[in-house]
From TrEMBL, chain A:
The protein's name: ditrans,polycis-polyprenyl diphosphate synthase [(2E,6E)-farnesyldiphosphate specific]
Catalytic activity, EC: 2.5.1.87
EC main group: transferase
Cofactor(s) listed in the protein's UniProt record: Mg(2+)
InterPro entries reported for this sequence: Nus1/NgBR (IPR038887), UPP_synth-like_sf (IPR036424)
GO MF: ditrans,polycis-polyprenyl diphosphate synthase [(2E,6E)-farnesyl diphosphate specific] activity
Subcellular location: Endoplasmic reticulum membrane
Keyword Secreted: no
GO annotation, cellular component aspect: dehydrodolichyl diphosphate synthase complex; endoplasmic reticulum membrane
TM region positions: 9-27
UniProtKB/TrEMBL annotation, chain B:
Subunit structure: Forms an active dehydrodolichyl diphosphate synthase complex with NUS1.
Protein name per UniProt: Alkyl transferase
Cofactors that this protein relies on: Mg(2+)
GO cellular component: dehydrodolichyl diphosphate synthase complex; endoplasmic reticulum membrane
Organism: Chironomus riparius
Length: 278, 298
């Protein structure tokens, strides 16, 4: 009897919390939509949205103490339908204009990487204008078999913002260590080895870091990981690279994503103080 | 202040009820803690940092008791990171003498540990520690190695990158000594040579004091781990914080299970050869012999 009662309480508590959470997120969305609605009708003349977005980004980014160089977006998705490519394009566009140089998308099943890469490519080139498109560099893991010597930036005149896009799946986390071991063995076996070739006497953290960095096309470690939903979990994202990464929730669902939410995350990140063990 | 509390846990009726209720759902087998906030707590109260660390240790023994009560069988704590060596000499010395004192105390509690079946493992690069600290840690591990009811892993002189590098080093050594063939060298073999090779998978990782990063802790081991962070500073951590973490774990449980399945399916399979088995057994023996040697330091 007692155990049945306890079980019932357990179910009830979970149910109530789920319910409150739904109401909470619904309320947040409602507030934001209502706010946007009011600002839109009270505006004198409707300005082009792209332009006002850029202004908003510029004004809210300029007093931030730090901007992440590399943002990794963790997507919790089960199939292609769960992905909103235009929202991913927004993330790229906002990041590019906030001064972020690298943006990576990770889902452990590799749905974006293996099934949606060309659709994403297509949507980006359609949604963004020509000069924005010129600033986008696809990382070495887009389209297998492309160059592996790292990211090559297109030649450009003067100062222009660029952003490098990478797509990752769980294979990139542990699998890259397989590649690393195979590479080193090959060098040992064929006498192509030099001082840098790993052996049990000369191995150091820095050496492993350099080798992995090469395999990853010299991307810097992501300083910020953003995720959707209420589950905080690495889902196996690049184990070597996330030791100092801040994990911050951006929105409950992909279609809830907005520029305001994105900027709020950048502000939250800028306030994080890192002590590096000290 | 000792590791194992003599007195029975005194809980109010509502705390008892909450524990009974939460046990109706899935309980994480293995919980890891990043016990952050001792120094901030001390400066908040305007007392010495070393006091903060002491109170932090007391909180640990309290939290261990709660974990047992809730049914958590294995606990890992991040006690001292390799990066912490960069702190002031004074603070490093304080932390080392705290470790000396607490582990010496542990050795006195031999009988109690056996009675309760508690096994202590220290994970980390022990070579970086003073010889006498190494000795005490090794003794504690050897003393409790046959206990198996509950397990406490203490990460000391630990970072995840150091651990992964060390594991690759072990594998390279095996290859150079002709104990391994090229096809044995896989990412899954890295798992088997980590300091945590004998630990079970971490189900839930709790970080206090509002930080939401891993700070080089168990990075390799946590692909399907639920990460819970709380604003509470470690000395202020309560049973309710722990229950909230477990509750959160239960809410994420389905997602966690599918992640776990994914990784058990997609990680490279370990070749089933007697060669590999022999290598791993001999690694275990070597590590054991090293502990024995450490414990003999005079």
């Amino acid at each position: 009897m007692e155990s049945v009662l306890l079980k019932v309480i357990w179910y009830l508590v979970h149910l109530i919390v789920n319910l409150f959470e739904t109401i909470y997120y619904f309320g947040l969305e409602f507030r934001e939509n209502f706010h946007n609605f009011i600002t839109n009708i009270t505006k004198d003349k409707p300005s082009s949205t792209k332009e006002s977005e850029l202004q908003l980004i510029e004004s809210s980014v300029q007093d931030l103490e730090k901007i992440p160089k590399h943002i990794i977006v963790i997507l919790n998705i089960n199939n292609e339908k769960d992905v909103d490519l235009s929202q991913l394009t927004n993330l790229i566009y906002w990041s590019m204009n906030s001064g972020v140089n690298f943006i990576s998308f990770y889902d452990y099943k590799g749905i974006v990487k293996h099934q949606l890469a060309s659709s994403l490519h297509h949507i980006i080139s359609k949604k963004l204008n020509i000069s924005d498109n010129e600033n986008i560099v696809w990382g070495p893991n887009y389209l297998k078999g492309s160059n592996s010597d790292g990211v090559k930036f297109p030649h450009r005149n003067g100062y222009r913002r660029h952003i490098v896009i990478n797509l990752y799946s769980s294979d990139d986390g542990y699998g890259k260590f397989n590649e690393l071991l195979t590479d080193e063995l090959y060098k040992k076996a064929t006498n192509f080895g030099d001082d840098e070739t790993l052996n049990s006497r000369n191995i150091t953290i820095d050496k492993v870091d350099r080798k992995l960095s090469k395999l990853f096309g010299n991307i810097p470690d992501p300083e910020l990981a953003i995720y959707f939903g209420n589950i905080t979990c690495t889902a196996g994202v690049l184990p070597w690279h996330i030791r100092l990464t801040e994990f911050i929730q951006i929105a409950y669902k992909q279609h809830h994503l907005s520029l305001d939410k994105y900027l709020r995350v950048l502000h939250k990140y800028a306030r994080c103080e890192q002590r590096f063990g000290k | 202040m000792s590791w194992i509390r003599e007195e029975e846990l005194k809980l109010s009726w509502i705390e008892n009820l909450a524990i009974k209720v939460i046990k109706q759902g899935p309980i994480p087998r293995h919980v890891a803690f990043i016990m952050d906030g001792n120094r901030r707590w001390a400066s908040k109260l305007n007392i010495k940092r070393s006091e903060g660390h002491k109170v932090g240790f007391e909180k640990l023994s309290e939290a261990l008791q709660w974990c047992l009560e809730v049914g958590i069988q294995e606990v890992t704590v991040y006690a001292f990171s390799i990066e912490n060596f960069k702190r002031s000499q004074e603070e490093v010395d304080t932390l080392m003498s705290l470790a000396r004192e607490k582990f010496a105390k542990l050795l006195e509690e031999k009988e109690k540990l056996r009675e309760k079946g508690i096994k202590i493992r220290v994970i980390g690069n022990l070579d970086m520690l003073p010889k006498d600290v190494q000795k005490t840690l090794a003794e504690a591990m050897l003393l409790t190695k046959d206990n198996n009811r509950s397990i406490l892993n203490v990460a000391f002189a630990y970072t995840s990158r150091d651990e992964i590098t060390n594991s690759i080093k072990t594998i390279m050594q095996g290859y150079e000594d002709n104990e391994l063939l090229p096809e044995d060298l896989t990412d899954t073999l890295i798992d088997k040579c980590l300091y945590t090779s004998e630990c079970s998978d971490v189900d839930l990782l709790v970080r206090t004091s509002g930080e939401n990063r891993f700070s080089d802790f168990l990075l390799w081991q946590i692909p399907s781990t639920v990460f819970y962070f709380t604003e509470a500073l470690w000395p202020d951590f309560t049973l309710w914080n722990l229950l909230a973490a477990v509750f959160y774990y239960q809410r994420c449980h389905v997602h966690k299970k599918s992640l776990k399945q994914h990784f058990s399916k997609t990680r490279t399979a370990l070749s089933k050869s007697s060669r590999l088995e022999k290598f791993l057994t001999s690694l275990e023996d070597k590590r054991y012999a090293k502990l024995v040697e450490m414990s003999k330091f005079v």
